[in-house]
Structure formats: C-alpha cells, structure tokens
Amino acid sequence: MVDDHNKLIARDPKTFKERYAIDVHLRHRVTSVDPHNRSICVVDLDTGTERTESYDHLLLATGSRPVQPFAEAKGLDNLHIIKSLASGIALKQYLDREQVRHAVIVGGGYIGIEIAEALLLRGIQVTMLQRSAYIMHAFDPSMSKRIADGIRRHGVTVMTGAGVKGFEIDKGKARAVIAGGQTIPADLFILGMGVTPNTELAQNAGLQLGPADSIQVNEHMQTSAPDIWAAGDCCQSIHLINRQPVYIPLGTTANKQGRTAGINIGGGDATFPGVLGTAITKFQDTECACTGLNTRTLEKTGIDFVSSEIDARTLPGYYPETAPLTVKLLADRKTARILGGQIVGGPGSAKRIDTLVVALHAEFTLEDMLNLDLSYAPPFANVWDPMVIAAREALKQ
Amino acid sequence: MVDDHNKLIARDPKTFKERYAIDVHLRHRVTSVDPHNRSICVVDLDTGTERTESYDHLLLATGSRPVQPFAEAKGLDNLHIIKSLASGIALKQYLDREQVRHAVIVGGGYIGIEIAEALLLRGIQVTMLQRSAYIMHAFDPSMSKRIADGIRRHGVTVMTGAGVKGFEIDKGKARAVIAGGQTIPADLFILGMGVTPNTELAQNAGLQLGPADSIQVNEHMQTSAPDIWAAGDCCQSIHLINRQPVYIPLGTTANKQGRTAGINIGGGDATFPGVLGTAITKFQDTECACTGLNTRTLEKTGIDFVSSEIDARTLPGYYPETAPLTVKLLADRKTARILGGQIVGGPGSAKRIDTLVVALHAEFTLEDMLNLDLSYAPPFANVWDPMVIAAREALKQ
User: Fold this and answer.
1) Do A374 and B357 count as a contact with CB atoms less than 8 A apart?
2) Quick one: closest CA in B to A279, which residue?
3) For residues B100 and B121, is the Cβ–Cβ distance under 8 A?
4) Which letter does DSSP use for residue A174 in this model?
5) What separation in angstroms does the CA of B392 have from each of A30, B291, B308, B388?
6) What tens digit of pLDDT does each residue of B11-57 get?
7) Residue A276's closest chain B neighbor by CA?
8) Is the pTM of this model over 0.90?
9) N or C: which end of chain A has fewer CB within 10 A?
10) Interface pTM, i.e. ipTM
11) Which of A256, A280, A368 has its CB closest to that of B371?
C-alpha cells in the first residue's frame, strides 16, 4: 500500500518549469481549436476570462473519461467512478468516513478487479457485476474463468450476464442495483465500465476520428490537420498483428506515443508503429496477462488459427514457492506465426508474458519458440519454459 | 528449502521402465565404444562381469565432472566438491555431523555463490576465493562488482585475485588454504571451480572434439561417427551471436539437446541451433542474469561495440516492493544489433533477462527495443522498461 498519495504524482508544475522550461496552466479549459488560424480558445476557470492563443504545433493529449450510462445515478454520494487521482482520494475519504459493509462493482475489467482487491483488503464484502458472459474480455472465456475463480476464492461474488438495469435511489444515495434479474442492495457502488476518448475538441475542429471516436493519427502521431498531433488515451493505435486501427488506451502506450509526438514536434523523426494490446493485472494471488489477438478478435478478423492451453508451474515442483500457471497460445494454422497469448497463474507468472511480447514483435512462429535459450535456475523457472511447452502443444494441431 | 532430497529426483528407473519402456542399468560402466562394429563394452560394477552390447544408435550423455586440480587434497574429509545429488547429501550430512564455523569456498561462479548462500543460511561464516580479478566471469567487471557487493552485504568475505596455491593438511583434514598471499584457516573447504566434459570414451573412440575437449556435434546432435549422438554437459554448442563453437554446459541446454537427439534417433528431424549462454542465479536479495556476449568475449572476437549501463527499478518508486536493478546492454557499433546484456538487482529483476533473450534470438537492433509493447502495471513494472531505457542510452553512443 502507498501511504501518501503525493508519492503518486510524477511531476508537478514546478518541476515542469524548472527541469523542462514548460509552462503548465492548471484550471484552464481549451474550448475550441482553429486549425486554419493555428489558434486555440482557452478559458481561465478561476477568473472566467477567455483568450486566444496561437500555436506552431498543437498536441492534443486530452485523455479519456469513464463511461457512465446511468443518468439517474449522477451525483449520488455513494456511487463512485475511478479515473483520476482525485477520484481515488474521494473514494478513500468516503471509506474512511462511512461504514461500508458491502460494495457492488459494476464492470469486470482491470479497474473493477483492482478496486475489488483494494476494497477486499479493507474487509468489505464485494459483489462484481459483469454484463457479458465472462469478465476480463481481453482473455478467452476459459482463461477468464480461471481469473474469476481466483477472485471468487477470496470471497468476492462475481456475477456474469448481469447487465445493470438501474439503481434504487433514496435520499441522494443508491440503495440497490438492479442487475441480472435481481435487486442487490449495497452501501457503495463503483462503476468500472471502461473509458471513452475525450475527442470533442478534435471533432469540432474537423479532425478525422478512428475507432471508438478516438483521434486518428499516423505513426508519427500526426492527426489529419497540419501541425496538430495527438497522443495518449484520446487517440487510436495500430494493432501490430492485423494492422487494424484500434482503441486500446493504456498508460504505457500513452508514454510511447507522447515521446514519439514530442520528438517529431521538436524537429526530430520518430515513429510509433503500434501496439499488441499487452495488459497485465492481479487480484491477490491471481495474476493475469495477455498480448496479441484472442479467440474473439481472431474470429472477427477471419484468420484460421490453432491454439493450446497448458498447465505448468512457475518453479520446479520441489521448490516451496512454486505456483501454478496456465498459458494459452494462439497461432496461424497455415504459417504457425504466433498471434497472441494469455497467462493466468499464481505469483510470479504474469510478467512472463514479455517473452511472448517480444516474440510477437519479431513475428515468431511456434517453431521459433522451441529452442529459445530462456533463463533457467530453480529459484526462477522450470527447465522447460511454459511458453515453450505451449508452443509444442500448439504445433501438434 | 527442500525438505526431502527424493523430491529432487525427476525420474527413477521404475518410471523409465513403466512410462517409456526404457531399461535403465545403474552401476554399469561403459569402458569403450567401437564405432566400426557398432558396439560398446560395459562392466557390471556389482558383479564385475564385462559384456559387449551392440547398438543401432548410440547416445553419449556422459555429462561433466568438477575440476579438482589439487592432488594433495584428494579424499580429505572436510574438502567437498558439489556436483551430484550424492555430493550434496554428503555435504549436508557433514554439516549435520560436524561443527562448522567457517567455510572457504574456492571459486566465485554459480556453484560457489549458491553454496555460499546455503552455508550462510546455516549460520556459517563464509570466505569465497576467486583466482581472477572478479567473480562471475560471464558478467562484465562493473556488473560483477555489484554482485560481489550484494554477497558481501550479508557478511561473506569475497577475495578476488586469490588463486589457491595449496592446502595445509593435518590428520586427513585440510586445516587452511593458502591463497592470495595468505594462509586462511577454516573448518570446511568447498571447491566450485567449474566442470570439464567426460569425453574419454568419445576421445578413445576417435570422435572429433570441440572447445574444452567437449564432443563435437552438428545441429542434429550427431558426432563425427555415424549413428553416435551426444547431448548435455559432455558436448559443445554453437554460440548464436558469433556462430563459434563453445562449451557452456547448463541444464536447460542439456534438455534441449537431449530432446533434439532423441527425436533424430527416433527417425524424426529436429535441430538445436545453439545457445546464447543465458544464465541466472541469486544470492539472498541479489539476483543476476546474463545472455549473449559480454565485453571480454566481444573484445576477443574483435567486434566494435557500444554499451550502456543504467540504474532503474523493478517497480514504480512509490511501490513498497520496488527494488533497484542495473541493466547493461552491448550492441554492434555499426549495425546497432544487440549482442548481449546483463542484469544485477533486487528481487524480481533477473528473470527479465528473457525479454533480451528473445530479442537476441530475433537479431533485434537497439531501435527495435524502443517501442516494445511490454506489460505494464504498477505491481509488475515501471512504465518505461529498464531494457528500453538501456537501449535508448546505448543509442546515444
């Protein structure tokens, strides 16, 4: 646990000024962009004054906001949405102030899982509601089930096929959620239903949009307007497996996109080729990670593929800290090129996805995995890496 | 700690027979191989009877034995060499039986470090002697120093430039070792001076030998004689970076070589292209791993190279379990192709070498590292992977 939220702030305005000579204006809202005159309208939220600023280059890094489809639930005291540091602090203060015995989390994605863990550690009973048939949609159903089992093992109620119909509201508080044909009462409700890109500025300026209305960019992070760039949760990426534009907003991608845009704006030449959709998270002793395409996205693109799903262990069986892990690999049936993979397992399992990440960047086939000189010593690994075993299994198909 | 040494036995003769229909003859010594008549001479050590057996295919998996250059130290009660399960049990029994206060370990390689940790955990004062100027020769001197610092931090005395001249012996026991101009008394002496391949049979049969007198094999694991194959610690490998034959005997390589030979003997077609010399170990809270060529081996091959050495952390600085790690990367100066790398750091650092292992197999350049979609979430990693930071630094040279 992090004891002080100030430790979570990477750079404050003073640091920006002193280290990078960048002026940061907090509490200033940009209301419009004029690509033809290369200018923006900006409002100082404290004084209410509006002014026009011109630019040589403009970077749109407007991020994303959480999805909140329930109009009636707006402004409720005990309904929280986690997005910013401020919203995290607000939730923490609410938990310190109020007696919360039972919380409902709407959404079985990364945010839902991480909030569930945090609440569980405070001794709160947690119910997680997922609209579709399985949680963690970046994973295949069989792997998702393993994640859900790991969450349930700690006493969390995970309900799938439980889309939220609405809330029972009384005196400014939600008292229950109606979902999956049930009315589920709780003291606290948290929405973790994904995010949508903040692209109203870009849209009003006439910029081209991509998937999920994210800002379209090329691999230099240039938008469709001259000298306007975009990076981070507000813009699209290219998926490196099928070369399709995708909207997969993640912090690590945002950093690489920002660096690429910054180099180009500064007169350099950098490209950001795209993403594999790599993601990783944990719930107590259950870790999970995925990269590349999964069964659902492969079926959508119409690629004929084989897959394997194998059970292995993080360390030799005689080693006390050994933990189970399951690896799923997906590969092109004709070429054996690896297209994606998933790991679910105990402590020390998920970060191994990076082996597969590099293999996907290198466009490796299943055969290329067989003789990888991966590191082995009993405190770190088994002689045969689970990824190699999974490749061997997939080759049998 | 493993409580029962029987857990360390992967397969016993009964398992071989029942699961694989393989007859295992323990306590049988093969005394010669006749490639022309396709036969071997074998002695039953219990009955003393000798017989000739013919073969269609012969696999030499004779392994290696530890180096022991001190004739006068042979058979001493308190001088141990660790190689087999039996020698480990003998050491454990000696420690249970005798009061050992101070042990001297000759050799600062993997075995030396792992034995030092085991002795330290039993409360024994340990002195480690290394002939050359730094321990762990697969690493560069600057990285080796970090490993040595990590070992010294736990109270182990690490002496470099301390080649052993001999032992002071009294009543069947070594009383002191003479090294580095000093006479160092101790209760127990352990040799971890590396291994030499068991290739007398191969040599007497007229087979070609490779580096360090290991058995020469092609990538099918065929020796220079028809229908004689070799795999494991007795034979050479090809180093994938410079395509030179090397002798780097490791368990993980032995497994891959054995599988390759087995498939080919069984009529299949498999190849083992070679090794990167990947290795990993730990001493308490200090982990280390390396792969590819290092400064010493690159200078020997005459390749012009650049390198970077950067300090980073396993997890974000605000995360309580964050630990320091140092990454060294070496790359071709002209082509920027990565040639090797090393990690030394705290818990959770060394296994990350696998990212680099796959990158080396893929013949990645430093530029290829910059946009890898490696997994990121605060419990697992920093936004910028240390390997990526190291690549960026090396590109500046």
Assistant:
1) yes
2) B375
3) no
4) E
5) 34, 19, 9, 6
6) 888 988 999 999 999 999 999 999 999 999 999 999 999 999 999 99
7) B373
8) yes
9) N
10) 0.95
11) A256
